[in-house]
Write a structure and sequence with these properties.
By secondary structure, the protein is mostly beta strands. It is built from 2 helices and 12 strands. It has helices at residues 53-59, 100-106; strands at 8-9, 17-20, 30-33, 36-42, 50-51, 68-71, 74-76, 79-81, 84-88, 96-98, 107-112, 115-120. It has a 5-stranded mixed β-sheet with strand order 8-7-3-4-10.
């Protein structure tokens, strides 16, 4: 999913992460799950974070055989959380979603036009 621009972090450890709106009108902040970059659509109105089966397979030893994947660490900008269990979506789910359950624990979200700001908690 191509981004509309470059994701930037302002100076300093507590500075917000700035994410441009993508052409599909969603936001895709850079997320690391166990230090593996995963493209996740940010959805504050979705209660539960879920992984696409493809992303779950990349994170699980031996593939995504179960409906839950345990990760030691979620990194979003300067914010870190872990360990965390993440649900795996059904086979037809193409994109992983960063929902309110994880997002609310990591950052304060604000949107100003075409840019999203994530400030670490």
């Amino acid at each position: 999913m191509p981004l509309a621009g470059t994701v930037t972090a302002a100076a300093g450890p507590g500075a917000p992460l700035l994410v441009p709106r993508a052409p599909d009108q969603h936001f895709y902040p850079p997320v690391l799950l166990d230090r593996i970059p995963v493209t996740m659509q940010l959805e504050t109105t979705v209660a539960e974070t879920r992984l696409s089966p493809g992303d779950a397979g990349r994170l699980s030893v031996g593939g995504a055989a179960s409906s839950v994947v345990q990760v030691a660490e979620v990194i979003l900008g300067a914010a870190r959380l872990g360990p965390v269990q993440l649900r795996v979506g059904p086979p037809d789910v193409a994109a992983s979603v960063l929902g309110a359950d994880i997002l609310d624990r990591l950052a304060v979200v604000s949107v100003d036009g075409g840019r999203l700001s994530l400030s670490p908690r």
